[in-house]
Design brief:
About 35% of the residues are buried. The chain has helices spanning about 5-15, 30-60, 65-115, 130-145, 145-160, 170-210, 295-300, and strands at about 20, 215-220, 250-255, 255-260, 270, 290-295. The protein is elongated. The protein has a domain at about 25-210. The chain has a 6-stranded antiparallel beta sheet with strand order 1-6-2-3-4-5. Helix 2 (about 30-60) packs antiparallel against helix 6 (about 170-210), helix 3 (about 65-115) runs antiparallel to helix 5 and helix 5 (about 145-160) packs antiparallel against helix 6 (about 170-210). By secondary structure, the protein is of the alpha+beta class.
């Protein structure tokens, strides 16, 4: 293994006698998440929005159910082809942006915690195979956007022609506009936020464990939207998103997301049924983060020195 730190840096680290906690930075929306959302918004405006507007015009002109069904079917075929062609390029640009952000964040965190430049640790090309797996998952989500959106449109048209009422007494025109607003403002946002957090979390785990960091402290953002907050918007967890409020400050292990410790790792307890059996960022829309507990001896060994 090459020497990754010079003698002065190794001596500085060797004087540290205890584990250090790498504090996480401010919980702001990453640029990579904004980038993915802009790309998805652009796809919606170019492909789906014009088709919705054409359908609304057909409704105003009292088009038959057959004509509207043909329009939806043709739009779905065209949209799926367009999204399929664009998905891989969009995802690859986005995932490279996520990688760049998370690399910069962990290097800054290590430097601020240890006072040593650790950029050499991550100069090599990293995890191309893992990045391919993440890109496949994100591409799959993007490719489902046309079918999910137009499936809702088709369902609205069917309900209208069978006399079933819409929520809040909406007309068919109003229901299709409501579906469009959700897809534009919520669906793309959900995909961008959820996928960015999941990939960031996986990259963070990889980068921490690759240099011998095996434990972390669970941090939630301590606001009204944290699931499980007794005075918040979501005081009770669910099967999709467990109670993350009670995880705050608990010591966890990267190699086992089913345990936690309250005594610095001397004893490990099984997580209860209301606790997530996952790492921060893995459950849908989880905004939690993992504060690395740095074993300086392992850092020195990894860097090519002696502990």
């Amino acid at each position: 293994m090459p020497i990754l730190l010079n003698d002065e840096q190794l001596r500085k680290l060797s004087r540290m006698r205890r584990a250090r906690v790498m504090r996480s930075g401010k919980n702001t929306t990453p640029q990579s998440e904004r980038q993915l959302r802009r790309e998805l918004d652009g796809m919606y405006k170019r492909i789906i929005f014009p088709a919705d507007e054409a359908l609304l015009e057909m409704i105003r002109n009292d088009a038959s159910l057959e004509l509207m069904t043909q329009h939806i079917d043709w739009t779905l075929q065209q949209a799926q082809a367009s999204y399929g062609l664009a998905a891989d390029d969009i995802v690859w640009r986005w995932i490279l942006a996520v990688q760049k952000e998370t690399r910069a964040k962990i290097i800054a965190g290590l430097h601020n915690t240890l006072g040593v430049d650790m950029s050499a640790f991550y100069d090599q090309a990293e995890m191309k195979e893992l990045m391919s797996v993440w890109s496949l998952e994100a591409s799959r989500y993007i490719r489902t956007i046309p079918s999910e959106h137009l499936g809702k449109i088709a369902e609205a048209v069917r309900r209208n022609f069978t006399g079933q009422p819409f929520p809040e007494g909406r007309s068919l025109l109003q229901q299709i506009k409501a579906i469009g607003r959700f897809e534009k403002n919520s669906h793309a946002k959900l995909i961008a936020r959820d996928q960015t957090k999941k990939v960031s979390s996986s990259l963070n785990q990889y980068r921490q464990t690759s240099i011998g960091i095996s434990e972390y402290i669970w941090r939630n953002v301590r606001d009204q939207r944290v699931v499980g907050n007794p005075s918040g918007k979501y005081p009770t967890g669910s099967s999709a998103h467990h109670d993350h409020w009670i995880m705050e400050g608990l010591l966890c292990r990267w190699n086992d997301p089913t345990v936690y410790s309250k005594d610095g790792g001397r004893t490990w307890l099984k997580r209860t049924s209301d606790m997530p059996k996952a790492h921060p960022g893995e459950e849908i829309l989880c905004r939690c983060s993992a504060e690395a507990v740095i074993d300086v001896k392992k850092i020195i060994e990894f860097a090519g020195g002696t502990a």
